[in-house]
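Suppose a colleague, Dr. K., hands you the sequence of a protein chain of 133 amino acids and asks what its three-dimensional shape might be. Before reaching for any lab equipment, you can write down a predicted structure in token form. Begin with the sequence itself:
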Amino acid sequence: MALLQESAPSANLPTAPAGIVSLAIWDASALDRCVGKNPVFQRRFLLKFLARASLQVADIVAGVEARNLANVAEIAHVLKSNAKSVGAMQLGEYSQRLEQAGYANDGLTCKALVPDLVEALAKASVAIHENLK
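The predicted structure, expressed as tokens, is then:
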């Protein structure tokens, strides 16, 4: 189990959302490119993504609290790939930063990124559900 570093966050892994907030919360066209334009399949795919992403974010939060940063990095890696595939670009970017911080054993950066990750998932969920109506 990786231990939480008690030093300042890594200079290579900024916690500020510089550039992230300019990314799309959700880009519907990304899903078209990934799985095609079948609305029934897209709906099912998006609902599964949101269900899994919620569990993954909960696991990341628990991993950061438990100081299991290697596990945080692994979960964040999967979440990053899935989020970017469905067009949840901000969520994907925060996941990528968490992945990098986890592999760098930078617990303070991981802890600082968790609220942004949770918020990005909430925003993506709202955007996706609005589109599914």
